[in-house]
Amino acid sequence: MRITSPGKSSAAGATTADAAAASVPLNEEQLHAAHAPLDKALAGVDPKNILVLTFSRKAQAEAQSRLASVPGLDGIGVHTFHAWSWQLVKQFWPELGFARPPTLLASEEQLLTLMRDCLVWDRLAEVQAAMRSWLFLPPSAGWADIAAAAAERHMGLYSAAMRAALEAHQEGAQLGSFAALTPEAAAAAPLDSLPPLLQMLLLLELHATLQRRFDGGSGGDAGAGGMNELLAAASRAPAILSWMEAEKRQGRMPDDEAYAALCAQHATGLGLSEPAERHRCFLRVAAACHAEQRRLCLVSLSDLLLLARALLQRGGEALRWAHSRWSHVLVDEFQDTSPCMLDLLKLQMGERRSVTVVGDDDQAIFSFIAAVPAIFRLYCQLFDARLLCLQTNFRSSAAICAFGSSLLLDNHGRAADKRMLPARGGPCSPVSVRQFATPALEAEALAAEVDRLWRQEGMPLRRMAALHRCLRLQGAAPHEPLMTALRRRGIPYEVVGQSRLAEDEGVAALISYLALVANPACDPAFEAVLRQPYHALSQDVRGAVAEQRHAARLAGQAPPSLFECAELLCTQAAAAEGAAEEGGPAAGSQVLGRQELAAAAGLLPQSDLQELRRLVGLLRGMQQAVGREPLAQAVRRVLHESGLAAWVRQQQGAAALAREGHDAGCDSSQETTSQEEAEQLPPRLHSVVVKAEQLAAKWQQQGSQVAGPGSDGWHGWLEGGLQGDGGATALASASQQHQQGLELVIELLVRLATETTVDMDADAAGSCVQQAQQAQGCRADPGALTISTIHAAKGLEWDVVLLPSVCDGHLPVPYRPSALQQAAGAAGAGSCGEPPDHGAAARAHYEEERRLFHVAATRAKDLLLVSYVQPVAAEGAAEEVCHMSAEPPQAGRASTQQQQQQIGRVEDPNQLPRCSSILAATLRRLRREGADPDGRLLHFVGRLPEQDFPGLWRPLAEEASRAGRPAGAQRSVLAAADGNSQPRLSGEQLSLAERCRQRLAAKAGGPGGRSGSGLRAAGVAKQRGSGRGRGLRTAAPAALEPG
User: Burial of 981 by CB count in 10 Å (0-12 exposed, 13-18 middle, 19+ buried)?
Assistant: First the structure.
């Protein structure tokens, strides 16, 4: 589907659409879309003024590859929305109020660390306000004033709180070890002379004691407060972070302005309900986290779109630059965009309407990032757009097109009445749907079929895939039975998820080092580095590093960075050692001096201090070497000198030994390369080095273009060494090299934060992993079967696709509103302040589950194998449930008693697995009398859930009634098997009488029915060439298949 907005005409110049059509053969449908109306709107337009946006790096690489094949369009910039937003933020950061160029916070764990810290200090702020009120102190009273007033007026309570705090501080070597203090000496000492953590524990214990005193014992347990209160506050970090990220995805920045607006809304003088108070607390902590990010000059990935929108809304230099830079916009994969991205489009274009978007609302499967099918309707309203629908599918066979289209007939509100028309003619294999009694039987049959296709029919394993809704579902791994069966047969496989590259443990650690190079004040990154096991730093040392920061915050001062605290600790420890050798007092104490005393007293292990000095020296050396050595060389150096590479190799070796011990003689998957670098570095870390080399080469090329012909551009600072004859020139050159080197490090961080594990093997030309695999099809190496999630498989294709475990609870997964959604609804935090409609949310959820099923089915080109687990309840019905393997019947079949033994006794029949309600509705539709009389489209062997569970079965995703739907929406999309004739129309939905008749027949033990013949992949017509169901491969990507 393609949607365009009207653009201005131009009288002369060759059009972009004409250039594309001349280089890529298009059919009549595609030519009509390509020339309406862009043949005039883009006439004579400089390609540099055209902006192409997409959502994922995978789609960006594919668009770049297509544009590279069209002459004259190499100047078009292709960006993801996040990369484009980052380009605005990094160029106009002063307009956003940052003190220096911001650094991307690439790791979610680092953001979680920041959130925990904010929660602890938010709790302390609440404690401080309450104690001021109880002690009748002014709002300006600090912690020292509060402690002094409590000690003076409630000496007994103060002493009891001090004893409890000392006990908690000295138990289990808490953060910051100091010489033992007696309760009497600690109570007599001023608050600011105590260890910072002891100060925090004392104040929390004192608050709990005073609360019990003033509230008459209603303040909670006697053990409340102290370390337990700190841990309780920090434990809420994941929930609040999840809520904050959800708010950002909806386009709402939870900052101080949002919190002030909420407080003004609730300023009624009346007490708030518990959900409303929770919502206000969440927003307050999120605003504090946002302020801390701004102080540290850090931005998270979810901030980029909101910051770019804020920049353009200000109407300053950023908006003027964007308007002059790009006059025409093309958006690919538009179904993956969110309303915030649509806001960015509107701000970018202003009053101009030269916008073309390409997408398919039937592939909108990313609602968790606020991408919904309604984005097409919103776009049409904003830009007064016209819609062009492309229905030709160039990938899948006629049977797969019919099956995939039928999955969506129960979805309402689709952007167009689309039907997938297969471009491929000739015979095709029917879609196979099979029932199995247990997951083990299903996995064994699927593995046997893969083995047959590979060994007997010569199908390379890399051209086959098994797709799952989730690889982790309620603590279970749905793909584990299939992996076990594959290992038993010696079939190589690889598991691919949609996780970000930054979520890899080794890559996340490397990101922390690089973040400290770009921004030494990045405290979350330094905390992550200190916790790395290969540094072996004790908790005492980590606490001693944080002491000065805690002390500064308790004193109301701006806290130093953790890196500065670590440098000072090393300096004080060295001074203390020198003073001990000379027999005199230590010098060089700066902020607190307590770290010097701790080191002098020998409370901090010397081995830890030596490792901390080595780590600080490594980081300082990396910071000083920025711009003086190539980026890839710097990455290699930190990997080897920090010990990260050796540790990752050790972890992977241990995991490999564990797998070999679990499955002796089975070799699951190997990853080999002829390059020596890959033998020295683990694969993921090696891919980071490759990305650094590619990024440096790209920047060098851009620098040469900027500097002009005959110039080396940035060759000097990329390859190392200073240029310039005089001292001033050398200093200027060194400063410029350092700044450019920092920009390169930050760009690498952005790449690592935005790329997924699927993207990590993309080459410099932008080829995606799937294209690289297909290019190796002529080699003898069969590759490995891909086991992937449906989300990760979007945009890819295979000759054979397996969809196992298509059961209710797996596909679709049940709709369950989260506790945060329920709290937001109770607090009136829905749209326009109204509670959200959970009924509408449930309908939208199951419609997306149907789209997920549709996307999974249309990844297949030639053969689609769908299976589900459902125990056979009726005696004798098990004979109808065949298996895909060609093994003898005794090895491939099981009696009803054997099946029940493998399933186990289940008291509640509702807990038994059963066919997906989405699949069941599609099977009824396709098996309706007259729909597929020859069995050319569907080969179904099994029973529907109402046949095995009469009276107990209820559909998880209820089949929506079609009453009142337009006549065009009733149209069936069953294509003929030869792919040449027009789709036939099906009858109306089964009547109530017909459904009752079938249920009575099921109770009477009637046959489940079967259709079609045996399963074989022979005779399948192969489609070479494009392989994608996308109608246009031009600079203006003007078509996208419904599949």
Answer: exposed
Residue 427's pLDDT band (cuts 50, 70, 90): confident
Output the CA angle 995-1001-1007, nearest 5 degrees: 115
Q: Which two tokens stand for residue 234?
A: 């920090």
Cα(134)–Cα(127) distance, rounded to whole angstroms?
11
DSSP 801: E
Q: What is the DSSP letter of 907?
A: S
Is the distance from CB of 225 to CB of 204 less than 8 angstroms?
A: yes
Closest CA to 669 of 783, 750, 547: 783
Strands 386-388 and 2-4: antiparallel
Average pLDDT across the chain, whole number: 73
Mapped onto helix, strand or coil, the DSSP state of residue 366 is coil
Nearest one of 811, 74, 203, 785 to 468, comparing CA atoms: 811
Find the radius of gyration of the CA atoms of the chain: 32
892 in Cβ contact with 445 (< 8 Å): yes
Contact 792, 498 (CB under 8 A): yes
* Gap between the Cα atoms of 63 and 1028, Å rounded: 13
Neighbours of 71 (CB within 10 A): 11
Q: Is 225 helix (H, G, I), strand (E, B) or coil?
A: coil
Cα gap 36→930, rounded to integer Å: 40
Residues 6+ apart with CB under 8 A from 333: 54, 55, 56, 59, 358, 359, 795, 1040
Tell me the C-alpha distance between 975 and 926, whole Å. Answer: 11
Query: Are 773 and 513 within 8 A, CB to CB?
Result: no
Phi, psi for 800 (deg, rounded to 5): -125, 130
Tokens for 823, please give them: 């709290």
- Is the distance from CB of 33 to CB of 2 less than 8 angstroms? yes
**How far apart are the C-alpha atoms of 148 and 133, rounded to whole Å?**
15
The pLDDT of residue 171: 64
Mean per-residue pLDDT for 994-1023?
41
Q: Strand 421-422 relative to strand 328-331: parallel, antiparallel, unpaired?
A: unpaired
The whole-number average pLDDT for the span 69-78 is 79
Average pLDDT on 604-617 reads 86
**CA–CA gap between residue 632 and residue 16 (Å, rounded):** 38
pTM of the model: 0.78
Closest CA to 642 of 617, 624, 679: 617
The CA dihedral of 731, 734, 736, 738, to the nearest 10 degrees, is -140
Amino acid letter for position 112: L
pLDDT band at 225 (very low <50, low <70, confident <90, very high): low
CA 409, CA 856: separation in Å to the nearest integer? 16
Q: Which amino acid is at 162?
A: M
Average pLDDT over residues 134-152: 89
**Nearest of 866, 1001, 840, 889 to residue 939 by alpha carbon:** 866
Three-state SS sequence of 372-437: CCCHHHHHHHHHCCEEECCCEECCCCHHHHHHHHHCCCCCCCCCCCCCCEECCCCCCCCEEEEEEC
**Is the pLDDT assigned to residue 627 strictly greater than 50?**
yes
Instruction: For residues 177-184, give the mean pLDDT.
Output: 62
d(CA 983, CA 977): 10
Q: Is the dihedral of CA 596, 599, 603, 608 positive or negative?
A: positive
> Between residues 77 and 602, which one has the greater pLDDT?
77
pLDDT score at 481: 93
Write the DSSP symbol of residue 1035. Answer: S
| Residue 494: φ, ψ to 5° | -140, 140
Tally the residues of the chain. Answer: 1043
The two three-digit tokens of residue 142, written as one number: 């600090």
- Is the pLDDT reported for residue 404 higher than 50? yes
For position 659, what pLDDT does the model report? 55
Q: Is 761 helix (H, G, I), strand (E, B) or coil?
A: coil
Cα-based angle 61, 462, 974 (whole degrees, multiple of 5):
85
Q: Is the pLDDT assigned to residue 460 strictly greater than 80? A: yes
Strand-strand pairing, 2-4 and 298-300: unpaired
